[in-house]
Amino acid sequence: MQSTIKHTAKATHSGQQTDIWFDDSERNGLYKTIFNRRDVRGQFKPGPVPDEVLSRVLYAAHHAPSVGFMQPWNFLVVADQQKKQQVHDLFTTAHNEAAEMFPEEKRDTYRSLKLEGILESPLNICITCDRDSAGPTVIGRTHIKTMDQYSSVCAVQNLWLAARAEGLGVGWVSILDQRKLQDLLNIPRKIIPIAYLCIGYVDHFYDKPELETAGWLPRQPLEQLVHFDSWQNTRSAEEDSLIEQINRDRDFPEQF
Ligand SMILES: Cc1cc2nc3c(=O)[nH]c(=O)nc-3n(C[C@H](O)[C@H](O)[C@H](O)COP(=O)(O)O)c2cc1C
C-alpha cells in the first residue's frame, strides 16, 4: 500500500520528493530502529522468515547508496542445513586460529564469547561485492579503489536496520577464511564476500552490545570522537557548543 502512495506522489511532482516528509513518530521510528539494532548470535528461533518479509528487507539492502551507482552487491541466500554446517566448520577452524592471536590473558574470555548463530538461524545471507559490475572505471572509485566494498557494506547496514524494524535479528560472522568461503559457496575469486549474515526471528534483543556487557570493550564517549578542522583537535563543552549539545544529549539513545 505504501508504495502505491509514494508512486502517486512522485508521478504528480516531476520526480521530486516534495511530498515526502517525516513526522515526529516516523522520525522517531528510524532512531528507534538504529538504537535498538543489535548483533544477534544466540537468541534465534528456528521458524522461517516469510518471503514477503525477506523481500522487503532485501529491497532495503538493494536501495543502499553505492559508488557511481554501481550496485556491486549480490545476495546469496543459504538455507540448506548441510551448507550451513560446512560454513560453521569454517567458522570453528578460524575461531580456534583467532583465539591464539589474542594475548593469553584474554584468550579464555574470547573463547567464551558466542560469535555466530550460523546453525540456529533459519537463514544465512552472504552479501558480496562484484568489483567489475560497472566496468573498470567507476564514478567515485577512480582514486579510492575500496569504495565498491564500502558500498556493499552500506547494503549490509540497510538490511540490518530493515530487519530490526521487521523484528528480525541479524548477526554478522566475519571469522571465516574468505577463500574457503568462496570455494564452499561457488563464489568466483573476483567476487568478494563482504558479509556473512545470520538472520531470523529471535527470543529477545539485548539492550546493549554483548561485547560491552561482557566487559570486552566499552562504548566510546561521542564527544571524544569529534575533531575540529584537524585530526585530533578535540574541544571541551566550554569551548564548543556542539560538544556541549552532545553532552546534553547523552541520554538521547536511551529514549528509544
Ligand atoms: C564488520 C563487522 C564484522 C563483525 N563480525 C562479527 C563476528 O564475526 N562475530 C560476532 O559475533 N559479531 C560480529 N560483529 C558484530 C559486532 O561485534 C557488534 O556490532 C558490536 O559488538 C556492537 O554490538 P551491536 O551490533 O549489538 O550494537 C561484526 C560487526 C561488524 C560491523
UniProtKB/TrEMBL annotation:
Pfam family, one: Nitroreductase
Gene Ontology biological process terms, A to Z: cobalamin biosynthetic process
Protein name, per record: 5,6-dimethylbenzimidazole synthase
The keyword Membrane belongs to this UniProt entry's keyword annotation: no
Record's subunit section: Homooctamer.
Enzyme class, spelled out: oxidoreductase
Family statement drawn from the similarity comment of this UniProt entry: Belongs to the BluB family.
Catalytic function, reaction form: FMNH2 + O2 = dialurate + 5,6-dimethylbenzimidazole + D-erythrose 4-phosphate + H(+)
UniProt-listed Enzyme Commission number(s): 1.13.11.79
Organism: Amphritea balenae
